[in-house]
Amino acid sequence: MAEFKDAHSPLYDTYARAPLAFERGEGVWLVTGEGRRYMDFAAGIAVNSLGHAHPHLVAALTEQANKLWHLSNLYEIPGQRRLAERLTEATFADRAFFTNSGAEALECAIKTARRYHYVDGAPERYRILTFEGAFHGRTLATIAAGGQAKYLEGFGPKAPGFDQLPFGDHEALKQAAAEPDVAAILIEPIQGEGGVRSVPPQCLQGLRDLCDEHGILLIYDEVQTGIGRTGRLYAYEHSGAAPDIMASAKGIGGGFPMGVCLATEAAARGMTPGTHGSTYGGNPLAMAVGNAVLDVVLGEGFLTHVQDVALLLKQSLASLADRYPDVVGEVRGQGLLIGLKAKVPNVQLVAAMRDEGLLAAPAGDNVVRLLPPLIVTVDEVHEATSRIEAAVAGLSLAGQRKSA
């Protein structure tokens, strides 16, 4: 395997990169310059929702690239209106604000919630309740929202206005929500970075009721769970507990950087001209690709396909947990957002999978995330589970004894 570490690289040394460089991709496959093929079950951390070089996305991008790339929001951008209409028609929302990333979508969500109370005559209501283990982005506000020490360290005082609560502690949540300065509750329906920890549907319903009781807003971070990842367009649909505001990104661009903050008419009422903006957000290139992604994901039978292949993959992985309990302790997640709770260091399991030609992503709580493109086929699921089993068996004490 080629070694790419270079002590003289001009890049920031902020990434612990695997020693791999890819030249091209097709579907669920990535190919190095030397021609080695890897199954991409990380999908750019749930970004490449339709895999690599999807022909419909390529056609939409190249067609738009020959027309117009960027305008700024000083002018009408028809693709924005079309994508906003489709997203609001398919979800709880009435309004949409387009961004370049998930962190920006969360920033917009936070500002929307605070502004809602400001125009309602309660500017003191600005605090956001979040949950331990959450990940909401890397800006100063979103690392404060997540509250994880490893992301906050060295960046000065934590931005005020965010209170982290223990995950699953209902009494602590009820007490905190009753405080008069609380503006909103912010939660991921499934914590991705935090270890693929799902919030049960009844708990989301309880959050909805709690917010209604105290006049606070419910914000979902669906940056990782949205756009078909869990088998529904958005994960909140499994519970029926709709939010007031939601951040979406990653899969919505299929690999092109974009995000969106969605909100009800009431929640967005404070976001009037001049209160928020973005130079690149909603640019024509992004809108062309976003609409192309929805063409596929909202197409007949697509989400049913996601549900079917996800069930097959989870059943196969559950079998591995039964047969190699010293390596895999638990299979978590929903749809094609799957977590393997590892009994060995998760980075070791990720490396073993990579050696077998399959790419996965680590997460908190010693979990390995499997996030294949949503277009993965039944045959590719079988191939992937075969490679994962080879990696797991190689790390298993039982496997080591058999080979001795």
Automatic annotation (TrEMBL):
<dbReference type="Pfam" id="PF00202">
    <property type="entry name" value="Aminotran_3"/>
</dbReference>
<feature type="binding site">
    <location>
        <position position="135"/>
    </location>
    <ligand>
        <name>pyridoxal 5'-phosphate</name>
    </ligand>
</feature>
<dbReference type="InterPro" id="IPR015422">
    <property type="entry name" value="PyrdxlP-dep_Trfase_small"/>
</dbReference>
<keyword id="KW-0055">Arginine biosynthesis</keyword>
<feature type="binding site">
    <location>
        <position position="138"/>
    </location>
    <ligand>
        <name>N(2)-acetyl-L-ornithine</name>
    </ligand>
</feature>
<dbReference type="GO" id="GO:0005737">
    <property type="term" value="C:cytoplasm"/>
</dbReference>
<dbReference type="InterPro" id="IPR015421">
    <property type="entry name" value="PyrdxlP-dep_Trfase_major"/>
</dbReference>
<dbReference type="InterPro" id="IPR049704">
    <property type="entry name" value="Aminotrans_3_PPA_site"/>
</dbReference>
<keyword id="KW-0663">Pyridoxal phosphate</keyword>
<feature type="binding site">
    <location>
        <begin position="221"/>
        <end position="224"/>
    </location>
    <ligand>
        <name>pyridoxal 5'-phosphate</name>
    </ligand>
</feature>
<feature type="binding site">
    <location>
        <position position="279"/>
    </location>
    <ligand>
        <name>pyridoxal 5'-phosphate</name>
    </ligand>
</feature>
<comment type="subunit">
    <text>Homodimer.</text>
</comment>
<feature type="binding site">
    <location>
        <begin position="102"/>
        <end position="103"/>
    </location>
    <ligand>
        <name>pyridoxal 5'-phosphate</name>
    </ligand>
</feature>
<keyword id="KW-0032">Aminotransferase</keyword>
<keyword id="KW-0808">Transferase</keyword>
<dbReference type="InterPro" id="IPR005814">
    <property type="entry name" value="Aminotrans_3"/>
</dbReference>
<comment type="similarity">
    <text>Belongs to the class-III pyridoxal-phosphate-dependent aminotransferase family. ArgD subfamily.</text>
</comment>
<keyword id="KW-0963">Cytoplasm</keyword>
<comment type="pathway">
    <text>Amino-acid biosynthesis; L-arginine biosynthesis; N(2)-acetyl-L-ornithine from L-glutamate: step 4/4.</text>
</comment>
<dbReference type="InterPro" id="IPR015424">
    <property type="entry name" value="PyrdxlP-dep_Trfase"/>
</dbReference>
<dbReference type="GO" id="GO:0003992">
    <property type="term" value="F:N2-acetyl-L-ornithine:2-oxoglutarate 5-aminotransferase activity"/>
</dbReference>
<dbReference type="InterPro" id="IPR004636">
    <property type="entry name" value="AcOrn/SuccOrn_fam"/>
</dbReference>
<feature type="binding site">
    <location>
        <position position="278"/>
    </location>
    <ligand>
        <name>N(2)-acetyl-L-ornithine</name>
    </ligand>
</feature>
<protein>
    <recommendedName>
        <fullName>Acetylornithine aminotransferase</fullName>
        <ecNumber>2.6.1.11</ecNumber>
    </recommendedName>
</protein>
<dbReference type="GO" id="GO:0030170">
    <property type="term" value="F:pyridoxal phosphate binding"/>
</dbReference>
<dbReference type="GO" id="GO:0042802">
    <property type="term" value="F:identical protein binding"/>
</dbReference>
<feature type="modified residue" description="N6-(pyridoxal phosphate)lysine">
    <location>
        <position position="250"/>
    </location>
</feature>
<dbReference type="GO" id="GO:0006526">
    <property type="term" value="P:L-arginine biosynthetic process"/>
</dbReference>
<dbReference type="InterPro" id="IPR050103">
    <property type="entry name" value="Class-III_PLP-dep_AT"/>
</dbReference>
<keyword id="KW-0028">Amino-acid biosynthesis</keyword>
